[in-house]
UniProtKB/TrEMBL annotation:
Signal sequence extent: none
Protein name, entry field: Transglutaminase-like domain-containing protein
Ranges for domain Protein SirB1 N-terminal: 101-263
Family assignment from sequence similarity: Belongs to the UPF0162 family.
Length: 293
């Protein structure tokens, strides 16, 4: 980045000529997100509404371009890190959000769980401990006040408000469980999202490789970690008139989970008539089609 060149271009953003502005904007959009602090400083130093709006548009466009690049990289290189994937979803709303801050908050809860666990506990006993820490001690739960709010899909908001939806609460639960050595993974069940507690030795890699895997039971995060059997999932599928599928009973990929969160955001923004946000989230979703499952 040539800082002098960037500063000179920023100064030209308030030119009344649309032709000049268009040329300057095009040059600045070739830069990386690193120039955002310079744009923000320029915004703070002026009271010109037109100049500020141009700066705001540039900032958002650069930050969104950066988010798309990060998401594309996650999909192709590091899809095994679920927390990082959902962190990227939150960066859409909070571009300055740091992964380290999210990771630290999650690890603090994980430590509370870890202190109560030991190798002599049964699978059900381990789940009861995680349930107690998450839902009783930290008081996480469903956002009954505004279930369709976009914030329910942003892990940063969920950690701060202690409220979420089936996907976001399950993500938090499964990440904490896995970091504590408990094999709990998300299941992409339509019209709900639950988790599977895998038999000893099972993990997501086993599922992805198509190997046979045993699920001990299912967990419903939206109902304070209630334990479900396969028959209850089968009843739910039948009740909802869903076409039977093995995928309703097995862990899904982290890519599927992040895609589900983004789809939730589309519904949220559509219901709020925030059409620009809808189109941007659809742009992010289009990246998932570029990468094979």
């Amino acid at each position: 980045m040539d800082r002098n060149k960037v500063q000179a271009l920023i100064c030209l953003l308030d030119d009344p000529s649309e032709e000049v502005y268009s040329t300057v904007e095009g040059e600045l959009l070739k830069e990386e997100v690193d120039i955002v602090p310079d744009l923000e400083k320029a915004w703070e130093s002026t009271g010109d509404a037109v100049y500020q709006r141009r700066l705001e548009n540039l900032i958002h466009t650069l930050q969104f371009k950066d988010l798309k690049a990060r998401m594309r990289n996650w999909l192709s290189v590091s899809e095994d890190d679920l927390l990082y994937g959902v962190y990227l979803v939150a960066r859409y709303q909070y571009p300055e959000l740091r992964y380290e801050d999210i990771d630290k908050k999650v690890n603090a809860i994980r430590k509370d769980v870890w202190l109560e666990l030991n190798d002599h506990l049964t699978a059900l006993e381990k789940v009861r401990i995680i349930n107690h820490i998450l839902f009783d001690v930290h008081e996480f739960g469903r956002n009954n006040t505004n279930f369709m709010a976009p914030q329910n899909n942003f892990i940063s908001d969920v950690l701060d408000s202690r409220k979420g939806n089936p996907v976001s609460l399950s993500v938090l639960y499964s990440v904490i469980a896995q970091r504590s050595g408990v094999p709990v993974y998300g299941v992409n069940l339509p019209k709900n999202y639950v988790m599977a507690y895998l038999d000893e030795g099972g993990d997501l890699a086993t599922v992805n490789q198509g190997e046979e895997i045993s699920v001990l039971f299912y967990i419903n995060a939206i109902n304070k970690g209630a334990v479900l059997g396969r028959k209850e999932i089968e009843y739910f599928v039948k009740q909802q008139k869903l076409e039977p599928s093995d995928s309703y009973y097995l862990p899904c990929s982290n890519k599927d989970t992040v895609q589900r969160l983004l789809n939730n955001l589309v519904y949220s923004y559509e219901s709020n008539k925030q059409n620009e946000k809808v189109e941007e989230i659809k742009e992010l979703l289009s990246l998932f089609g570029d990468i094979s499952s």
